[in-house]
């Protein structure tokens, strides 16, 4: 399957002002940014050529082909542009493996762990490593670390920060002293999709015409108030409430979404409490798709956490910050 690249915008300046190419290269997509010397995005290109969806197999030059398709026009105009990449492109299945750095991990550790790969075009790509939290139950991230440092922005002076990244594998990250101290991964999105598509719960569901916030919040509250036995116990209520005419078929998908997110937040609340931190007293920063982050913001409010904020352009800011720290570009004046 061929990765198709499309130009998104060229709003902030001219390509002749370009200073950096930065890539957010994940499993299913590639997003390329062209920055000017002030750290502003000049142009963006998006491709479906994630590492598992290259134009041709990796052993036949798939990474080179995807890179050329996304960035060839920019490099043709300015062949000496530095290139930085983050995400699954640095995994064992990526273009080059950038080994994890261990927590606590700051920007300097990420820069020290950068691994370079040379493209067929001659461009040298600096690949950002992921982060490993070692232990009896190790935890890893790759790509999120860049977004986290982008979200910190002017918040570095804060002693601690709680950052949430909703998605297929949701992550909650505790930052201390501008370093990733520890983090928790919840397979919320993947479990929701599996329950909906591959269990009996999906048999009675009907896709709603529009998101049902009331049904979603009902699920969140069930997880919070009746979830002590865990998701394996409460998930079946999606079916039984339907069978007893207490939950309409088109309410069930949002109810189940609320359940799984509610259990995630209950788990987060519990692990924070072990360190004498109250979730309700936190002001989390949320990174991700606006609609999903808004769902999390509503769900967090049910746990008494009303100060959550959605952070936008965290990826762009994080890529630029790491590029500056790595000396690929000068700091914006």
TrEMBL record:
<dbReference type="GO" id="GO:0034194">
    <property type="term" value="P:D-galactonate catabolic process"/>
</dbReference>
<dbReference type="InterPro" id="IPR042257">
    <property type="entry name" value="DGOK_C"/>
</dbReference>
<protein>
    <submittedName>
        <fullName>2-keto-3-deoxygalactonate kinase</fullName>
    </submittedName>
</protein>
<dbReference type="Pfam" id="PF05035">
    <property type="entry name" value="DGOK"/>
</dbReference>
<dbReference type="InterPro" id="IPR007729">
    <property type="entry name" value="DGOK"/>
</dbReference>
<keyword id="KW-0808">Transferase</keyword>
<dbReference type="InterPro" id="IPR042258">
    <property type="entry name" value="DGOK_N"/>
</dbReference>
<dbReference type="GO" id="GO:0008671">
    <property type="term" value="F:2-dehydro-3-deoxygalactonokinase activity"/>
</dbReference>
<keyword id="KW-0418">Kinase</keyword>
């Amino acid at each position: 399957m061929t990765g198709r690249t499309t130009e998104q915008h060229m709003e902030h300046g001219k390509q002749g002002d370009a200073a950096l190419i930065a890539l957010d290269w994940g499993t299913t997509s590639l997003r390329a940014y062209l920055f000017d010397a002030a750290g502003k995005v000049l142009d963006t290109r998006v491709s479906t050529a994630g590492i598992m969806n290259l134009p041709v197999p990796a052993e036949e030059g798939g990474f080179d082909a995807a890179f050329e398709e996304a960035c060839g026009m920019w490099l043709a105009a300015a062949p000496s542009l530095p290139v930085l990449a983050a995400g699954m492109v640095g995994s064992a299945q990526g273009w080059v493996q950038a080994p994890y750095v261990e927590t606590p991990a700051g920007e300097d550790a990420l820069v020290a762990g950068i691994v370079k790969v040379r493209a067929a075009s001659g461009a040298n790509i600096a690949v950002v490593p992921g982060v490993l939290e070692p232990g009896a139950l190790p935890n890893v991230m790759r790509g999120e670390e860049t977004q986290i440092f982008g979200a910190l922005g002017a918040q570095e002076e804060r002693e601690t920060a709680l950052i949430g990244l909703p998605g297929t594998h949701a992550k909650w990250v505790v930052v201390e002293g501008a370093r990733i101290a520890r983090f928790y991964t919840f397979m919320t999105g993947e479990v929701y999709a599996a329950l909906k598509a591959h269990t009996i719960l999906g048999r009675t569901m009907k896709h709603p015409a529009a998101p049902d916030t009331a049904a979603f919040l009902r699920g969140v509250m069930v997880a919070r108030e009746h979830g002590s036995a865990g998701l394996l116990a409460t998930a079946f209520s999606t079916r039984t409430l339907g069978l007893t005419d207490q939950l309409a078929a088109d309410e069930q998908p949002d109810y189940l979404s609320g359940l799984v997110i509610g259990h995630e937040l209950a788990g987060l609340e519990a692990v924070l409490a072990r360190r004498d931190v109250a979730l309700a007293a936190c002001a989390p920063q949320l990174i991700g798709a606006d609609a999903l982050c808004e769902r999390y913001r509503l769900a967090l409010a049910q746990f008494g956490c009303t100060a959550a904020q959605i952070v936008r352009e965290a990826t762009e800011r994080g890529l630029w910050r790491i590029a500056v720290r790595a000396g690929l570009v000068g700091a914006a004046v």
